[in-house]
Each structure stands twice: as C-alpha cells, then as structure tokens.
C-alpha cells in the first residue's frame, strides 16, 4: 500500500515511517519543505503528486491541537 505521511519529520512521523516500511508499505514522506499543508492548494498538490492509497496526517506545529484520523487503510499494521 502507498501511504502518504504528513509531518514525517516530526515527533510521531519519524517513528511511524520506518514501521510502515518494515511492514512492506511504500511511504511518501511529506514535511514542511513540501509547503504549508494548512493551505488547500498545497495540500491538494501534495496528495495529487503522492497518489496515495492512504493518508496519515500528522503535520502540525508544537502546541497545536490536532485530531488524528486514519481513513480507509485496512492493511496498515495494528
């Protein structure tokens, strides 16, 4: 499965990416260098370019309260 992980360089993402790879998933890692994912245009571009089967959205700054949703990814570990 091709998985887009936003916030891949952050506290959670840097631990999740290798686990996904160990389980045989192809990971597309997005971080701040890919643009501000709070901006709809940047978010659409990142998702379009990655063409993922699943998205794990972990992007956000320190102290920001975020909800984490995992949608339609039945083959992920756990």
Based on the model shown, name its key terms.
3-stranded parallel sheet, 78 residues, alpha/beta, 27% helix, 2 helices
Helix content: 25-40%
What proportion of the residues form beta strands (DSSP E)? 15-25%
Given the C-alpha coordinates, what overall shape results?
Answer: flat
Widest beta sheet: strand line-up: 2-1-3
- Helix/strand-derived category reads alpha/beta
SSE order? EHEHE
Rg (C-alpha, Å):
12 Å
Query: How far apart, in Å, are the first and last alpha carbons?
Result: 15 Å
Averaging pLDDT over every residue, what do you get? 83
Number of separate helices: 2
What about the largest sheet?
A: 3 strands, parallel
Would you report the number of β strands? Answer: 3
Could you explain how this protein is built, in words?
A three-stranded parallel β-sheet has the order 2-1-3, with helices on both faces. It is an alpha/beta fold and 78 residues long. The protein has helices at residues 13-22, 40-50, and strands spanning 2-6, 26-30, 54-57. The longest helix is centred in the middle third of the chain and has 11 residues, at 40-50. The model has no long low-confidence stretch (mean pLDDT 83).
Write the layout of secondary structure elements.
Blueprint: E1 2-6, H1 13-22, E2 26-30, H2 40-50, E3 54-57
Parallel strand pairs: 1-2, 1-3
């Amino acid at each position: 499965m091709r998985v887009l992980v936003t916030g891949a360089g952050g506290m959670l993402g840097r631990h999740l990416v290798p686990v996904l790879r160990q389980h045989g998933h192809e990971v597309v890692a997005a971080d701040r260098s890919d643009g501000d994912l709070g901006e709809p245009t940047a978010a659409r571009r990142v998702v379009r370019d990655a063409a993922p089967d699943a998205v794990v959205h972990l992007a956000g700054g320190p102290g920001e309260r975020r909800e984490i949703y995992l949608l339609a990814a039945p083959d992920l570990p756990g």
